[in-house]
Amino acid sequence: xxxxxxxxxxxxxxxxxxxxxxxxxxxxxxxxxxxxxxxxxxxxxxxxxxxxxxxxxxxxxxxxxxxxxxxxxxxxxxxxxxxxxxxxxxxxxxxxxxxxxxxxxxxxxxxxxxxxxxxxxxxxxxxxxxxxxxxxxxxxxxxxxxxxxxxxxxxxxxxxxxxxxxxxxxxxxxxxxxxxxxxxxxxxxxxxxxxxxxxxxxxxxxxxxxxxxxxxxxxxxxxxxxxxxxxxxxxxxxxxxxxxxxxxxxxxxxxxxxxxxxxxxxxxxxxxxxxxxxxxxxxxxxxxxxxxxxxxxxxxxxxxxxxxxxxxxxxxxxxxxxxxxxxxxxxxxxxxxxxxxxxxxxxxxxxxxxxxxxxxxxxxxxxxxxxxxxxxxxxxxxxxxxxxxxxxxxxxxxxxxxxxxxxxxxxxxxxxxxxxxxxxxxxxxxxxxxxx
Length: 436
Fold this sequence. Notes:
This protein has about 425 residues and is of the alpha/beta class. The protein is built from 13 helices and 17 strands. The protein is elongated, with a radius of gyration of 24 Å.
């Protein structure tokens, strides 16, 4: 029986999961592949800590160069994470004629264009299913299953940490800081959760999906990014009154020849499929011309979910090798000559609905003054919630849902409103999407 040798660089949580799947499911993989997918080498700086899995003798090493450029290693798995040395490892493997699998979304968001070019030049496969959505096969769906579709939009909940926090805040009325601490204790959030809660991790993944969907080079720096740290429990109460839920949403749309890409807290109608995705789960909602709306849902992170996607990529590359069909599927779904720089819509030019929560002193004519300024800036009010009067002469929340408005107009209006003597704090703004 033919044998395809695999080298694994990075033996942390995900690496241990990949090793477990390859070793424990060896027979089922072999029966599907028609060849042996052999874990031949594992490289990590730490090869003494217990990973909860027994690997064959002699395959552990602290030197990645025993894998990189080794003619006996057919496929290299990069699970180091981060930018360097991951970038150097991947490029060395590709330039040496080795196929590569990675789960490294940050690497692809920053250096993906360079890496894809190296894979093309080397005539080898580069697969990265686990970089977006963990075990959800969304990249394969876009690259292969939807190959006959024109994709209009891709939107998703792409960070389990944020989704868990927002779910708990909405269900329990807890403060952000309390839920974040609980998420860290449960292992759902890192000790330094900045990349998650500030939306950066989600934006890394959106950059990849945007490129796949719209035939354009990866452009992480064009994504507007906001995190969830400013969301308050009271916002969930008002969202329910409007019939909405709050999610950290990644949005990519192609409209009138322009791509719109943004990550921010979003109010979605409770009836929308994405609004029903709770806790640590991820989901991607794709709207395409032939299929129409479709949802892809599952575990977006974690040891075994991510390992599942990595091993799926290994099997795909192994099948390509066995059938002498490397480069069968283009890296970014489209042929190289079809991938062209896109025109991106500036954030100030987007139009959407808005949830506005004003912190106003309890005085007369407050509502009319706010409404007047909004109207002068072409912002129409769809509904208003005004709570009872303050007994101590303090502040009261005034909440509005607007009709669709232009972002630049809203920002201009709020700059004036927030300077009024009747306003006690900057206005809270959450965009609302009803027609994804």
